[in-house]
Amino acid sequence: MIVEFHPEALLEFRAAAIHCSGIDPKLGVDFTDKTDRALDLMEFHPSAFPEIDGRVRRCMPRRFPYGVPYSVETDRLFILAVMHCARRPGYWKHRLPA
After folding, report:
1. CA-CA distances (angstroms) from residue 2 to 27, 29, 39, 88?
2. Local structure of residue 86 (DSSP, 8 states)
């Protein structure tokens, strides 16, 4: 299955990694590693995570307060956001494919 990021979700992922690296470089690496692991789990077990909004599921990378909402499309896993869970819930909903 192909994993595809919404362009804004990819920017969010990078911004979160930079933010964590600013706190401690090892933390940035750990955030990237944990999120990559979560993406692998979503790719190989797309229905393993809870539905949060209709056809959207969310995976939570270990240790970090970030959620990765995604939709499972016919031929891809579409990452809608890499969101901090304590900020603006649902801001990403307009990114759902039609």
Report:
1. 28, 24, 11, 28
2. T
The whole-number average pLDDT for the span 45-62 is 93
Q: Model's pTM, two decimal places? A: 0.91
Q: What is the pLDDT of residue 53?
A: 86
Q: b/e map of 64-85 (b: 16 or more CB within 10 Å)? A: bebbbbbbbeeeebbbbbbbbe
Residue 48, amino acid: A
**In the block, residue with structure tokens 């990378």:** 61
- At 88 the pLDDT is 87
Share the mean pLDDT of the chain.
94
- 51, 77, 85, 19: CA torsion to nearest 10: 170
